[in-house]
Amino acid sequence: MKLSETNKAWILLTPALLFLSLPAYGLFSAIWTSLHENGSFTTKHYRTLFQQETFWESIGYSVRITLLSTVLSLVLGLLITRAFSPFIQSTKGKLSIWLPMLFPHFVWGYIVLLLFEQSGLISHLLVEMGLISSTSSFPIITNDQNGIGIILTYVGKETPFVVLMLLPIYAKQQDGYKDLVQTLGGGKWAAFKDAEWPWVSPVLLEAGIILFAFILSAYEVPFLLGATFPEMISVLTYDWFYSGDWNERPLAFAAMIITSVLIGIMSFIAFSAMNRKRMLLTKGQG
Amino acid sequence: MDRLSKQKKIQFWALTLLFFILPVVFLFLKSVVLNFGFGRSSGIDFTLRGWETLFSESQLIQATLVSLGIGALVVFLNLSVGLLAGKALAFYSFKGKALIEALFLLPLIVPLLAIAMGIHVAMIRIGLSDTWIGVVLIHLVPTVPYSIKMLQSGYASIGTGLLQQAKVLGTNRWHRFFSVELPLLMPSIRSTVFLIFVISLSQYVITAIIGGGNVVTLAMIYFPFLDSAESTVLAAFSAWFALLPILFYLSVELLLSLLPYQNPWRTRL
Amino acid sequence: MTPSFITVEHTSKSFNKEAIFSNLSFTLNKGDILSIVGPSGSGKTTLLRCLAGLESFSTGKFLINGKNVTALEANKRPVSLVFQHPLLFPHMTIQENVAYGLAFQRRKKKERLRHAQELINQVGLTGYEKSFPYELSGGQQQRVSLARSLAISPNLLLLDEPFSSLDVRLRNEMRTWVRQLLKDQEITAIFVTHDKEEAMQMGDYVGVFENGQFQQIGEPEHVYHSPANAFVADFFGDHLLVDQETFIPVQSLFLSRSKPKQVGSVWEGIMKNKLHVHGHSLYQVFIEDLNQHVTVSSSINLTIDEPIYVSAHPDSVQTFTNQQQRNG
User: What assembly does the database describe for this protein (chain C) (predicted)?
Assistant: First the structure.
């Protein structure tokens, strides 16, 4: 018997769907744990969590760093791809711009340390050039309270990622649409808005959401480059998870669930902002 | 126009040099330079001691092998899942496809830490915690979504036409896969292998939670090194993280060249 | 009566309950070439894909040489399809491309290569064996594609507008050449096109396809001169449709400035455009009463938008042949 096309598709998708059960189970188990104590339902962990000042400080700090890193990476990635896509498409260009992708995040963090520490390369170079008197007058921008070192690391690592996502669009982009807009009397801005942005924005949105989610909850970089206070939420979570005090473990779960909810809200806002724009666009055409 | 593009070219290379290439070069230098001679008139002292110390650590060799093994298995599983799902998403249209595509992105959006903590208990129950199988499984979470995406676009760029043509010519599924799909998917497969291996190598926190300190990958010993080792050793260790994917990639390339239509001496596209 | 080589019986195909074609039947003898011609969207490509096995018929039977192949997958059917685009495997040489389908026939490798070489020679590409597809022109690529499909010695060869991506001059050369090749090798073939001239040139029989139905199947000349219905007559364009039952071939029409008296059928028309073909002046005339354009040869010198009478002898008025379907 011949299988129908739809059934064939589902058979091909089976291993991937099986894989999905892994993160799905993990997430639901985390939610369950955060809402139970000794087998019975409770919201106690959340109440405890919300009373912790460190938690709120950590969330605010994490979101600030995450938004800054994400937006900077997206903007830089977009600008670089727009300006240089013909060069990036050459093998040499690809290899050099994707060089940071070769390194784990924490190694890129270590490179940032080597460069930007008070005893790092840049500080020494500035002293050599006579711009600052000694390395100790170089500002502290790693393991600092503003998270500059973390942001530097993420921007350096994620900008190539954004370029990687955007490049196929710029490689395929037909100049026809742009030429059309311009022959119809539209300027450079109109050409960008009508012939470029509609293709680019969905990819930027996707990359933005992935980056936001990743940076908000990743552990390695803030562990390496963060300050002792405030801590990013992942570091706080990890501390709670592995603290000797078993009462703190459920807090770790609750903190991560709140983080997930935050990511969910963020994605929802981003998506609906874009869909609203799309709706306006289609209405405008009607 | 020509001058403009030349100018742009210079800008591009200046930018990549400054932000991407020089930092990496500096890391490699740092691993062989004891002292850059700042503040003194004396020259730069080269040394291979960092690398020697690094490779004299038996722990490092052991961890490298563990990382390679886990990475290879993760890559293999990724390719298996990704090729099948990528094909389905590229060539078939069915109800709920948009939903499925969105679902495949979810593992990248839900915090990995939450997933790992959530799975941890179940892993203990079925005896997979503290084992390399458990670690391989958890490494699938941040990797498989990328594989599916990359291989989906790989299949989409081949198009249905060539595959239907192959089918009409009377060849069976396996022969079609090895003679047409695989050779034409090679560019996507290469980037998948590379990226997935790097991601697997980079996982510290989820490896720590699921592996429980029993599965010692490179990432697991890197963090303790940060506090103790001297700068040349640490720089060498950091550089090792970048060399390993290249090494892995080259050996995979060697393996792939055994497949049909992969002879490097043939004229290529 | 000997059983037909190719038999298609009461087949239909629908997508999501929407019928693409229904209750379709025809037969072909070995070595026959059937051209299927029709406007785009008429379902002719879907029919071809069903015959190839890339899609399945919703109902009906398809027999080759008495064997029912309806349930077989595309790769198990003794049917080969040449697509609109050459679709050569870019990573294989010309020789590997042509020999591709032979991998699954029980022959020695040497024998397979010899057979592939034979076909390369036949399509006139000797010397290109080791070349890669991108080194060949569009016409050469399509010839390789044809050789590749012929290599597996299919019982039925399907061609889906194989020349449509070629330029006009090359297209004409290829038609003559391909038809000769198919005839020489006695290949049974179905050729799909939207070009009526190509259909008549390529086929022993022409099937006019519209609305999921054969409007008429027959020898090219017969279909051309005796259209079965208004659609066929209109599609070939060389007839003036008087009403749903009758038509007048254009060569029986003549133009005059004054209204002729002795003839029965006269219409008022307006000259819209002038063409020159084979040394004749052809006028495109719009007849308002019939809401039709008709192209008529004439020696009078007309200017654009000039009113003119179009007339025909009463005995030149013909009735459409009934719609019985012809077996090839």
Answer: The complex is composed of two ATP-binding proteins (OpuCA), two transmembrane proteins (OpuCB and OpuCD) and a solute-binding protein (OpuCC).
What pLDDT, on the 0 to 100 scale, is given for residue B269? 41
* In contact, A151 and A72? CB cutoff 8 Å: yes
- Nearest Cα of chain A lies from the Cα of C147 at a distance, in angstroms, of 29
* Per-residue confidence (pLDDT) for residue C324, from 0 to 100: 38
Does residue B4 share a domain with residue B96? no
Nearest CA-CA partner of A103 in C81, B225, B239: B239
Instruction: Pick the residue from chain B with its C-alpha nearest to A212.
Output: B109
Chain mean pLDDT for chain C: 88
pLDDT at C325 exceeding the cut of 50: no
Cβ-contact C77, C69 below 8 angstroms = yes
pLDDT, mean of residues C160-166: 88
Contacts of B15 in chain A (CB under 8 A): 80, 84
pLDDT tens-digit map of A33-82: 999 998 899 999 999 999 999 999 999 999 999 999 999 999 999 999 99
- Residues in chain B with CB shorter than 8 Å from the CB of A110 are 27, 226, 234, 238
| Same domain for B2 and B101 | no
Amino acid at A229: F
Chains that touch A (3 or more CB pairs under 8 A): B, C
Which of chain B's residues have a Cβ under 8 Å away from the Cβ of C54?
164, 167-168
Cis peptide bond N-terminal to A230, omega within 30 = yes
Per residue in C62-110, pLDDT (tens digit) is: 999 999 999 998 989 999 999 999 999 999 999 999 999 988 777 788 8
Answer yes or no: are the C-beta atoms of C34 and C220 closer than 8 Å.
no
Do residue B169 and residue C80 have CB atoms under 8 angstroms apart? Answer: yes
Which residues in A lie closer than 8 A to residue B94 (C-beta atoms)?
5-6, 9-10
Q: Are C285 and C275 within 8 A, CB to CB?
A: no
- Against chain C, the chains showing at least 3 CB pairs within 8 Å are A, B
Tell whether B141 and B23 lie within a shared domain: no
Which residues are C160's β-sheet partners?
C192
Cα angle C1, C7, C12; round to 5: 140
The yes-or-no verdict on residue A285 having pLDDT over 70 is no
8 Å CB contact of B16 and A96: yes
What mean pLDDT comes out for the span C183-187?
A: 91
Which residue range is the domain that position B41 belongs to?
Answer: 1-47
- Domain final residue, candidates B13, B29, B47: B47
Q: A42-285 is classed in which CATH architecture?
A: Orthogonal Bundle (1.10)
Q: How do residues C231-263 score in pLDDT, each as one tens digit?
A: 888 888 788 888 888 888 888 888 888 888 766
Residue C151 and residue C115 in contact, taking contact as beta carbons nearer than 8 Å: yes
B67/chain A closest Cα distance in angstroms: 13
CB contact under 8 A, B15 and A234: no
Residues B81 and B192 occupy one common structural domain:
yes
From CA A277, how far away is CA B94, in angstroms rounded?
27
pLDDT of amino acid C1: 47
Same domain, B20 and B152: no
Question: Which of 81-140 (A) contact B at CB < 8 A?
Answer: 83-84, 86-88, 93, 96-97, 99-107, 110-111, 114-115, 121, 124, 127-128
Low-confidence ranges of chain B (pLDDT < 70): 1, 37-42, 262-269
Listed by start position, the domains of chain A span: 42-285
Give the A window 2-61 contacts with C, CB below 8 Å. 2
> Where does residue C171 rank: exposed (0-12), middle (13-18), buried (19+ CB within 10 A)?
middle
Structurally, chain B folds into a number of domains equal to: 2
Dist CA B192 CA B85 (whole Å): 14
Domain shared by B81 and B139, yes or no? yes
Pull the structure tokens for residue B178. 């090895």
A:64-83 residues touching chain B, CB 8 A cutoff = 80, 83
B105 and A210: CB-CB below 8 Å? Answer: yes
pLDDT value at position B42?
62
Q: Tell me what pLDDT residue A6 has.
A: 82
